[in-house]
Amino acid sequence: MIERVSLIVCVLLLISCEKQEIGDTFPNAHQLILFQVEYINYAWGFSHSGFLIDSSGVATKFKYPKNWHHPDSTGYISVSEMEDNIRQLDTISFTVNKTEVLKYFSMLENISKGELIIPSYRAYDAGTTDFSGFLYDSNRQQYKHVLIKREGDRPIVNNAAEAEEVFQWLLKVCLIKPPI
Fold first, then answer.
1. Where in the chain are the domains?
2. Shortest CA distance to 60 belongs to which of 80, 36, 25, 27?
3. Checking CA distances to 17, which of 85, 102, 133, 172 falls within 20 to 30 Å?
4. Is the CA virtual torsion 137, 49, 105, 55 positive or negative?
5. How far apart are CA 106 and CA 104, in angstroms?
6. H-run or E-run covering 94
7. Quick one: residue 57, left, alpha or beta (phi over 0 = left, psi -120 to 50 = alpha)?
8. How many CB atoms lie within 10 A of CB 166?
9. pLDDT, tens digit, 9 for 90 and up, residues 61-96
């Protein structure tokens, strides 16, 4: 009798469970691009390369794109500009663990509220490497650029508690599959 009741309870629990979509846990997880690592250097000749990571964990590299779009002065980039950037990606890709991508993406909202601090040290010919993420703003129908950290000539540190953790993860991704 107890076995029969246990079986019925298990069946009822399974029937009543709803499949939870990724979008329920991570509201913007289906946006085009979640993270970007971008290196630019004008010293000793021009260099521009990096990669974008999408919500599936696919990281696609770019090198010397012809017409790369950067966020405007308010920190936003339009969907059409993001799509144009995506069209300029190279075909060489690698995959990052999707669970990791979503874990770090979930920290991006808090990072977006962090204060950007410019340390006193700087270089003059190292270029800059920006480690950033994007949050889709459905009201504006644009992506908000979130700077996690900038290394190089003009370093910038985001003081949000999660920023260093996400930076270290992106750095690890870069070391495994360098953007340049």
1. 26-176
2. 36
3. 102
4. positive
5. 5
6. strand 93-95
7. left
8. 26
9. 999 999 999 999 999 999 999 999 999 998 777 899
